[in-house]
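Anyone up for a design puzzle?
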């Protein structure tokens, strides 16, 4: 029987060191915002506030590329580890991303360069994810700066 003087009972759970979330987004103009908000909410919930801005910007760029350059849906995977955060965006096109250098007058083509400048690393996933033919990922350091 609990009394007011007894400390509350807390269920013992092992500390979860890794978190792995996935989101499927339709081939729709709303996909970049939905994916951006998904990443923002997860990072804020896990106390990774310092990574919210760079992660949401890079996520937006990768999902926008899917929307602009492919005709299919996107699958976003967010992996949060103690020292790293990785976001992977998979699409249905087997074509590799075009990381060309945009000229000063180009209105398009700066997305992957922006991701490269902001993220600690980025690349193309070596494996498929179900029906999704390719994935592009970026990583950010997980420690508060």
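Challenge accepted. My sequence:
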């Amino acid at each position: 029987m609990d009394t007011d003087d007894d400390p509350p009972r807390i269920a013992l759970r092992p500390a979860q060191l890794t978190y792995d979330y996935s989101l499927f987004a339709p081939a729709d103009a709303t996909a970049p915002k939905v994916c951006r908000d998904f990443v923002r909410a997860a990072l804020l919930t896990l106390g990774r506030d310092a990574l919210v801005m760079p992660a949401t910007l890079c996520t937006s760029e990768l999902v926008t590329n899917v929307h602009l350059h492919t005709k299919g849906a996107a699958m976003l995977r967010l992996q949060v580890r103690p020292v790293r955060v990785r976001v992977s965006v998979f699409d249905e096109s087997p074509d590799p991303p075009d990381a060309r250098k945009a000229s000063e007058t180009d209105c398009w083509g700066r997305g992957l360069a922006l991701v490269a400048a902001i993220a600690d690393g980025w690349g193309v996933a070596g494996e498929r994810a179900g029906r999704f033919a390719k994935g592009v990922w970026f990583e950010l350091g997980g420690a508060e700066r």
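A detail worth pointing out: The mean pLDDT is 84.
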